[in-house]
Write a structure and sequence with these properties.
By secondary structure, the chain is an alpha+beta fold. It has ten helices and five strands.
Length: 218
């Protein structure tokens, strides 16, 4: 079982690369984000997921173990094969994917080829419990209305986070970006529970600051 390849990049195609290891060329399917970092004639290391079928041995390569781990998680979801898994990781880095799942952001997943609304919803539903330890502030992710009241009683910060995130979404920000900036504001607040208005104001300030320095903002 091949778990890692280290060698020279012999060729890069639309969705594959050939890694020359000791004179043997390995054809590896990769997400676009990985392929963009590979340079023909230059050395590279790819973390590999090997899939053995009756008619072929398929290699899927990634620049980090985190990407590989997410590929494994994604392909556990019904309807997500290797092609769709690579497509999702082509448009979303692991941290962005974790935020999208925590925020239940169907729009972010829908940017990937082959992911329609129904499949996006299934991915979010099946993987939502797997991002708690992978993204900061996951406890502040939007919750169903039925569960919101109980969560509010357990931690008033959850209600503040949900209201602030909803307000930012209403202002035109994506759920993933709104979730990320609100989580950052609440993390910076420590154990205190700021008012919703204060969180929104701080979030907008952070967004404006990021945009002023050429960042994407939230």
């Amino acid at each position: 079982m091949i778990a890692r390849l280290k060698g020279m990049i012999a060729a890069v195609d639309v969705d594959t690369a050939i890694v020359d290891v000791g004179g043997v060329g390995y054809l590896v399917a990769c997400p676009a984000r990985t392929l963009a970092k590979l340079v023909v004639g230059q050395p590279a290391t790819l973390w590999v997921e090997t899939v053995v079928r009756e008619d072929a041995i398929l290699l899927y390569g990634f620049v980090s173990q985190e990407d590989k781990a997410w590929f494994r998680r994604l392909t556990t979801v019904q309807g997500v094969g290797a092609k769709v898994g690579l497509s999702i990781l082509s448009v979303l880095a692991p941290d962005a994917l974790a935020r999208a799942i925590a925020a239940q952001d169907k729009g972010a997943l829908g940017r990937a080829n082959g992911v329609g609304p129904k499949l996006a919803a299934r991915i979010l539903a099946e993987l939502k419990d797997k991002v708690g330890g992978l993204v900061g502030g996951a406890a502040f992710a939007p919750a169903p209305a039925a569960a919101a009241h109980a969560a509010d009683e357990a931690d008033p910060r959850v209600a503040v986070a949900q209201d602030a995130t909803s307000a930012l979404v209403n202002l035109g920000y994506s759920p993933s970006d709104a979730f990320a900036v609100v989580a950052a504001v609440l993390t910076a607040a420590g154990e205190t529970t700021p008012a919703v208005e204060a969180v929104i104001a701080a979030a907008l300030k952070d967004i404006a600051k990021a945009q002023a320095f050429g960042g994407k903002g939230a």
